[in-house]
Structure formats: C-alpha cells, structure tokens
Amino acid sequence: MFVLNHQNTVANHFLAELRDIHKQNDRLRFRSNLERLGEIMAYELSKSLHYDSKLVQTPFKKLSMDLLASQPVVISILRASVPFFQGVINFFDQADSGFIGAFRKAHSGQGDVEVELGYMAAPPIEGKTVIVVDPMLATGKSFVESVNHLLNNGSPSMIHIVSVIASPEGVSYIKEHLSIPHEFWLCALDEALNDKAYIIPGLGDAGDLAFGPKL
After folding, report:
1. DSSP E strands: which ranges in the chain?
2. Fewer CB within 10 Å of terminal CB in the chain, N or C?
C-alpha cells in the first residue's frame, strides 16, 4: 500500500487545502487540488508498471528509452472523481477510460449503507491493468460493486485502487471481498468511519464540494 502523506512533499499542501473548511468554499481551487493530486498519484503509480526498451529517433540519432509496455485502463467512479480522474489521465494520456455511476442508497450507518450502480460505460479489460479512481474510499462497497460490475467486460490482470482519502474499514472490506490482485494508492489513510459511514477526519462530501449540493 502506497500512502502519499507518509512523505514530506508539497502534495501535503494540496491535501491540506482540500480538508480546510476555510478554503473549501472555493470550488475551483477544490477541483484544481483534486486534479493536481490525481497527477501526482498517476506519476507514483507509473513507477510500478511494466516498461519495454524502444528506439526513439532524435534529430541526430536513435536512442533507446524505457516506455510503457502497454497503456492501463482508467475507470472513474462518478461524480466526485471527475477532477481527480482528469489528473490521472493527464499523465496516462493514451489510456482507454471508463465511467461508472455509483451512489449510496442509505446513510443511517456503516452496516446499512447500500450502493446502487446507475450507469456504466467501459472498454474491454481482459488481461489489462485497470486503475479505478475515486477520491473517497469510505466503506469500500462502491469499489467492490463497481469492480464486480466491471468484470462483465473481462478479467483484468491487476487493479490499482487510487483514492485521495481512505478509511481503514474500507481498505479491509476491499481486501476481504476483492479476489483479483490489487494494490492501494492513497494520499492519506484516515482514522475511521463515523456512524454515518463518513471518513473521519476526512474532508466532507467531495462531490458536493467540487460541484455543489445534490438533492
């Protein structure tokens, strides 16, 4: 498991602004910070992928360079992931992408949270490296439900789960219920979930902060 804020980097400034209630009312800045963290996480994740040596013709001679052996497939869990996902594909700019609409049906408690999938548009993923992007990993149920639905498009070789903030409960739930090889890429691993299954200390509702409240 990679956790970005275990290191002292400028990325912690972006994460701090996302959490700061005095800065959260600036939606443009909130989305921009999500996008910047998406770029940073894509860069860190890219170090774990497979590379092949390929010849590149410069104006003067051919040069051998290690380039990605194949592009991943990047899956966005709507709606909060949109700016975070944009950061990821800014770096994996030749990757195929997919979109899954997942939302909570109930909020009364962690055990009562149900996830509904309302939409999916995704490419074939058979044998592919898949990156699933969602800024908030709370209960982990939307990740597992989304991946199970995604398996209709094939069986991936590896799933990389990329989030800004995760709870220990969500990480444990995914480890228990996801049999496909997977790795976690987190900006922060927080303390716990509260009785409404929101991450503490977290940052609130990322979708509402990025795009405004929903009915």
Report:
1. 2-3, 51-57, 62-68, 73-78, 96-104, 115-121, 129-133, 136-137, 158-166, 182-189, 192-193, 199-200
2. C
